[in-house]
Amino acid sequence: MIDTDLYRAKQLYPFQDKTVQTIIEELEKNGKQFNLLYQLPTGGGKTVIFSEIARRFIERTKEKVLILTHRIELSIQTSKQLQAIGVNNKIISSEVKAIPDQYEYNCFIAMVETLNNRLNENVNFIENIGLVIVDEAHYNSFRKIFQFYKNGNILGVTATPLSSNRSLPLNDNYNKLLVGESISSLIEKGYLADAITYTYDVNLHGLKIGSNGDFTVNSSDQVYGNYFMQEKLLFAYEEVAIGEKTLIFNSGIETSIRVEETFKKRGYNIRHLDSTFSDKDRKDVVQWFKETPDAILTSVGILTTGFDEPTVQTIILNRATRSLTLYHQMIGRGSRKLPNKDQFKLIDLGNNVRRFGFWQDYLNWQDAFRFPDRFLESRLSELEDLEFEVEFEFNKQLQEIFNIEKLESFSIKDTYFSCIESGLKGKVAVEQSMQNHLEVITQAAKNPDQALQFCNFLSEHIEHRLKHYTRCISKSTPNYLKYLIETYDRQLKQLVRNSFY
């Protein structure tokens, strides 16, 4: 049981109260087996909103509510808010193997992996659930739970309605998206602090794109861990944010540790934090950050969600990302409003603003929900020509199968411009690329069936090359790229068959 004397319920703002009513009406209107996704920017108060939705849903339907989170901090934060508004709830932690007293509770909060294990052991682990609320719904780990609650309602909430896995779009599981207040609207109405953005040109040559579509940690550490990038970071801090409470986001642990060392040598009050820290050490660092006016906290992948420190004055993106969701999560850590804080500073050292636009810019989230591939491709291709700066990173399986040196020796961009200069058609570059792929496949394969399978193994590398080609010819629409990939795949497989027979 949580002591409500230690936690005061956050009262709903007018727009939040209106949102709660709209969502409740939407669920009632569409009945059971209807799943709704709700979008609201970081700092807009999603926890307050869905806690009140849970309270009203329980009151109206007499059914119970299950809330899914992906971090224990979010579970505790939600539990406190629910208890403060009179919703008796229970956190299902890894220690909870059974709930003999579940009749005492109207609401349950669980992390997805723990609950999935319990439900696989006993599908009736929690009974009479009418509504499942999914916090940070863009994460795909929650999908495994949905099969157990097909007969109820699911409400997903997120700041960015884009799936963390492009091959598993959110519209597969949600029937409708409800878009909340925009960032600019929340700033204008005084609910969020405004970001004053400072950008610095950086050379991202050397970054590699991994299988998840974002830049790899290893390549990021190499780019951001060097002396010149450390000096650029220090220069940016001293030029814009010196003496202010600052949160620095890095891609890799090695980089973050180097940042801590660099700043300490200059006498700055800085500490490093990453996911390898124990709970106690993490709490100590976070508490130090809260209490220290000029604190600098350099971190890796741990403070993008579930971290709420309104006194942050400056956010530094000491990394590049191709994830719009991560971009918004990082910046959102500085957007909390205080009576003496209506602005915060954003320092971008990863060409992220150039890639995604300003944080306050309007985004058509309905388009992102309905056509996620088109939405993402248009932003990454129109706003940023970055893929010309990066190399494709082959995973260990591919490195063991193929002659990677031969694959990396071929540049479709260089070949294209060489063809044009020689008076040849640019499409010859695609044909030569296909020949390069054919050679490494037939060299590695023992028989035609294995060779055809190897074609599929190289699908991501083929797409990477063809994206470069479409940039060269300034024809990078999603439909044309899809056509190119399908044609390339068909012709390459035909060449493979011909080479064996």
Unreliable stretches (pLDDT < 50, length at least 5) are 1-6, 381-388
**CATH architecture label name of the largest domain:** 3-Layer(aba) Sandwich
* The CATH class of the largest domain: Alpha Beta
Question: Widest sheet: strand order?
Answer: 3-4-2-5-6-1-7
CATH topology call of the largest domain:
Rossmann fold
DSSP helix count?
A: 21
| Approximate shape | globular
> Could you tell me the strand content as a percent range?
5-15%
The amount of helix comes to 40-55%
**What is the radius of gyration?**
25 Å
CATH superfamily of the largest domain: P-loop containing nucleotide triphosphate hydrolases
Mean pLDDT over all positions: 88
- Largest sheet composition: 7 strands, parallel
Determine the N-to-C terminus distance.
Answer: 72 Å
**Number of domains in the coordinates?**
3
Helix/sheet category:
alpha/beta
Number of strands: 15
